[in-house]
């Protein structure tokens, strides 16, 4: 049995309960966007191995995003945009979620460099990192995914450098 958690069009608010996620769950979609959720993204989210889509954008979530995210080997779409996370460098787990097709972390107080490895994921189609404080250039390297269609890194002084394979 497949489970979807589409909790759109409601007025959820407050913190995500500590015991919400477990390894026994068979949850595919977690859609908690545009709520008034605060607190942190719990490490237990990484135990739900079946998650394919996580959209928790446009909330008031804070803290650091747990590295347990890299346990989600089925994750295809991950949108954390427009939250209140602690200012941080692009987390290491960004370069570990290899099955992702869309990664969106816009307006989320990221700074530093984006790992080149991210752009080589074979299924990657979109990367949205706009309105952060990424510094220097975003170097995509020479092994850019053939599926990659869009990279948004506008604001914060960032520019994009395309790898040696000539794709633009």
Automatic annotation (TrEMBL):
Localization per Swiss-Prot or TrEMBL: Membrane
One GO CC term, this protein: membrane
InterPro entries in alphabetical order: LRR_dom_sf (IPR032675)
Principal location listed in the UniProt entry: membrane
Keyword field: Glycoprotein, Membrane, Repeat, Signal
Domain of life: Eukaryota
PANTHER family, A to Z: LEUCINE-RICH REPEAT PROTEIN KINASE FAMILY PROTEIN (PTHR45974:SF242), RECEPTOR-LIKE PROTEIN 55 (PTHR45974)
Protein name: Uncharacterized protein
